[in-house]
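Limitations
The structure tokens in this dataset are predictions for the assembled complex, not deposited experimental models. Users should treat interface geometry with appropriate caution, especially where small molecules or nucleic acid strands are included. An illustrative entry is reproduced here so readers can see what is and is not provided.
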Amino acid sequence: MSEQAPPGPPEPPGSPGAPVPATATKQKENSGESHRSFGQILRESILEGNSVTVIFLAIFTAIVIGGLLNAFTNTTVLHAWGNFFSAPGAAISQAWNTAIGAYVALFEGSIFNPHTVAALFQQASISTAIHNGYLGAVFNPISETCVQATPLLLAGLAVALPYQAGMFNIGAQSQFIGGAILATYLGYGVNLPPVIHVIVCVIGGFVGGAVLGWVVGELKARTGAHEVITTIMLNYIMAYLLSYLLGNVMQRPGRSDLISPFIAGDAHLPHLFGSTLRINAGFLLALACALGVWWLLYRTTPGFEFRTIGKNPSAARVAGMNVERSWVLVMLIAGGLAGMAASTVIQGTDFSLNFQSYGTYGIDAITVALLGLGRPLGVVLAALLFGALHAGAPLMQAQTSTPVDIVEVLQALIVLFVAAPPLIRAIYRLRAARAAGVEGLSGKGLA
Amino acid sequence: MELELKGITKRFGSLVANDQIDLSVSPGQVHALLGENGAGKSTLMNVLYGLLQPDEGEILLDGKKAHFASPKDAIAAGIGMVHQHFMLVPVFTVAENVTLGMEETRPSGLLDRRKARRDVRELSRRYGLEVDPDALVENLPVGIQQRVEIIKALVRDASVLILDEPTAVLTPAEAQDLFRIIRQLKDGGTSIVFISHKLKEVQEIADTITVLRRGAVVGQESPSATEDQLAALMVGRNVQLKVDKEPAKPGEVVLDVEDLTVADETGRVWVNEMSFQVRAGEILGLAGVQGNGQTELCEALLGLRPIASGHIRLDGRDLTHSTPRQRLHAGVAYIPEDRQEDGLVSAFSVADNMVLDSYDRPPFASGINLHLGAIASNAAERVEEFDVRTQSADTPVGTLSGGNQQKVILARELGREHKVLVASQPTRGLDVGSIEFVHRRIVRQRDHGVAVLIVSSELDEIYALADRIAVMYEGRITGFRPPSVPVEELGLLMAGSEAPGTPETPGTPQAGTPEAEQAGAGESS
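Predicted assembly:
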């Protein structure tokens, strides 16, 4: 090889080796088109059409458009623009200030707030600063970002892993609920020693989600039921089941609304940096799961099977892989991950379950996985980004009276642009380098 | 119309796909463009059809310079193209497909279906195409679908018709029909550009042959040039077209298929009580027109399709109900018919594809841990041994040429322990150089004592490789013959008639087989 290779590259450029890729790819596209399902095409266009550049440009574009939206829905700005011809400068600066002000507040609420540092230095001594929580205040934004990112990260992995195996898991919500029910019940319903109680509840979360994932996988393997349909339906079933349980067997004594008892203090995930910061072991658990999923996908034989099945199920069958078994296994693990996301919410921040605890995690998980290109490291980064947006939103609303909803708009815009790479390419006049897409894909591990 | 290409150059980044190509096609002429895969034939035709813009050079129509910004311009100028992969809507009728994109309406604003049907019928009659305008395209055989594509071009008044590898998807009989149609079109004054890498058919149909290699014209030949001359031009060196092989020394029966019946989900029987044996050190060539159950037979042999009745034994071990993995482990090597679909994961690297069916065993894995180092060193070795032309073992296999992709599959399958090799259409779509390589490797496996089953619809390939020929027709074997059998007799068997003098009924072939085998082995030299 080493002897073959050097003459290879210099000679082939104009030679058969070189033109071939073009024609080969073209043939593949042509022949592929006829028997690719809609799902495959969608998945390929999302997974493979993107390079990291496109992702960053998508985020940037979303921020710009979000800023414009923010500025031009603000009454002060609109009023200033009403007087545009008398004071054009004021109109523009007002719009700029509004947009930037909101983003600055968002940043201060999610990453770092200089005012907290100033307050820290005004304290007489370090010990009083720590005692009065001023040091904690400095790190509070980052802590909040991590807290918000934790369930997003786990639920995002629950979508990304099946993605790699060629499946769409729309059911992170139902799996989240499954995990939440079991983790909550184990949290208040049983008495266990301190450390063990935490672990049992987390495992309970995993099992609760895994059961729902397993059902989906088993239905697909045995009957061919498409996982998109079954997961969506299970989302409804689980949401109503949750309401039912919270109104009956799981209802907190003395309450008439749908809420569970508080879980035992033993079952709380431990704080990482003292009780003033909400960041807890759940964040480490989520990071460990991301590493675990990466290891599973790129360093183990089942992972090799998952990826093969995701890219080409018929070749996987010919190579002797048990496609059906892999479907079940993938959905089981994915369900477990979503279930653990519920664990981190119940045991990390909420300590009880109500009928809306699942929030929008199911949908956010899909957007996180999309933005993360379905890869573990990407999911970590995407979860942190969305976590930061969630964490910063309250301060932004408080300081600049920008509605928190702008954060949802921002998220939606990012995903919109990520899902439509040609749009970004057109805006920035990028060349649609297919080769780059293929390269990005073939990377063996984390990007 | 006189078509002339002058100094066409097309670059993709640093690579030159077409380098100063001159070509002229006169009316009523079949001009063959011969070259290996990747020689730049398709690029050139895409330039001519307006799909690509040349970087240099010009296109002249009747001496006037033409510029095609899109296929629309090319079509308007009278150029038609039949792609290798058809652009038809399966659920539409022939007439609907033909009018698609140029629908004519009646004054009421409704589609004028009657005119479309009339056009199709008229063209069909004039050129003997025998196409029913009301048939649904999805129900038509490939050969007829191709004619629909030709009609599409003719309806748009094409005077130059480009046929891109038209015979790649056709059976020999369909190819002969196509040649008849081409001759009629030619007599009607249409110029044909016939793109191919198959020497025989180019010799048969072309008036002029232009040979491309590495994006440049390397020669103009007349059809009287010998196959060896053309092959040498195409590949750039002398090529051994005939496979050198010693007479087979058949040993014990390795693969024993007995009364095998295979049906699909709808209950249609594809393989009907079929029996045959393959011995160690011999190649059994299974000939037959595509679609007579060969695909289903191969899938059943590998365990991808349930077996309705009968037995498959390997070295005496019953594999009838084993999973594909058990069969692979038992010593079946398999080269699938459709390598893109069943043989490779095109987004995966060459290295990963080389362990696609052995990734779970030492040295590539222990427990569930993959050993990336072992996978990489295995790839490095095999890339060298099988002369896979790739930039590195980490290159996605989908970017390699067809020949190199097939080498990756060969390297994987032959690199495992195996007792029997099942190869389905092992050289379909490959260029001359790669065919030579694949054939040599297959013969070498035979000489190492592997039992080889070749399934091919190309008779050339069957003759080149087989020590014994079996012909399959509608799920049954219509006869076993020695490789010395005349092609006419094979043709009859392929059409389903059991030639006189060889009373071989599929139900009881065991009795007749050994004699035929021995005879075959004896005469094969």
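Some entries come with short summary sentences. For this one: Chain B has a mean pLDDT of 86.
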